[in-house]
Design goal:
1 helix, three-stranded antiparallel β-sheet, mainly beta, 148 residues
Length: 148
């Protein structure tokens, strides 16, 4: 009776852990009763262009920045997804308000952090080599491989 109760409790504990945890890895028994592990089944990458206003506090205004980022990600149809890597390709200042000088502005974009199915890039603006302001943009990949 005690043994049966232990087995029932172990099954209930395992079921609770499966239901309460997000699933990123899938497993099933193999032909010889061993465990076969499956990871994300689909991988892809994409490039996205962005346009963002970056606040420049020292100049009391914002400048417009445009650029491109590239992201690699993987997903299992309908279950889970995650970003694998990201790179900022290019960024440039596309519009500067009339009230400030137009020369010496540069922008760069780089991968800041990845947290599961969210990736964050940082855009930094500088004028004549001195930091002027920054902004962050983020993207999300869903369990069907759609990046937004």
């Amino acid at each position: 009776m005690v043994r049966k109760l232990r087995n029932v409790m172990a099954v209930m504990l395992a079921a609770t852990a499966v239901v309460a945890s997000p699933v990123n890895v899938f497993a099933m028994s193999g032909p010889d009763n061993s465990i076969v592990t499956y990871n994300y089944s689909q991988e892809s990458s994409c490039a996205k262009t962005f346009h963002v206003l970056v606040s420049v506090p020292g100049y009391n205004t914002s400048v417009s920045v445009g650029g491109t980022v590239s992201m690699s990600y993987r997903w299992d149809e309908g279950y889970a997804s995650e970003f694998v890597s990201g790179t900022g390709y290019q960024a440039s200042v596309t519009h500067i308000p009339d009230k400030i000088a137009k020369d010496g502005w540069t922008a760069k974009v780089y991968h800041l952090r990845t947290a599961g199915n969210t990736i964050v890039f940082k855009i930094e603006v500088s004028r004549n080599g001195e930091f002027a302001g920054s902004a962050e943009i983020s993207y999300h990949v869903d369990e069907y491989g759609q990046v937004s």
